[in-house]
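About this split. The held-out portion is used to measure sequence recovery: a designer receives only the structure tokens and must propose an amino acid at every position. Recovery is the fraction of positions where the proposal matches the reference. Here is one held-out target exactly as it appears in the evaluation file.
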């Protein structure tokens, strides 16, 4: 196992591939969180919660919430 780890660490090509895949997963997670925030904002908006409060709760800006 240790040899395999050392081989991966020493291989620039494998390292770059690993980092690209890692970054892709991070971006996917960020997009999923953003979509979840939007869903929450839509629900809060439907309950007539003030836009300023929705922005504080979700982290979205008011302009974006208005467009939902």
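Reference sequence for scoring:
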């Amino acid at each position: 196992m240790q040899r395999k780890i050392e081989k991966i660490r020493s291989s620039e090509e494998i390292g770059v591939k690993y980092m690209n895949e890692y970054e892709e997963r991070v971006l996917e997670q960020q997009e999923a969180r953003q979509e979840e925030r939007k869903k929450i904002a839509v629900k809060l908006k439907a309950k007539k919660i003030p836009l300023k409060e929705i922005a504080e709760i979700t982290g979205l800006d008011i302009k974006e919430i208005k467009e939902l």
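Annotator remark: The chain has one domain: 2-67.
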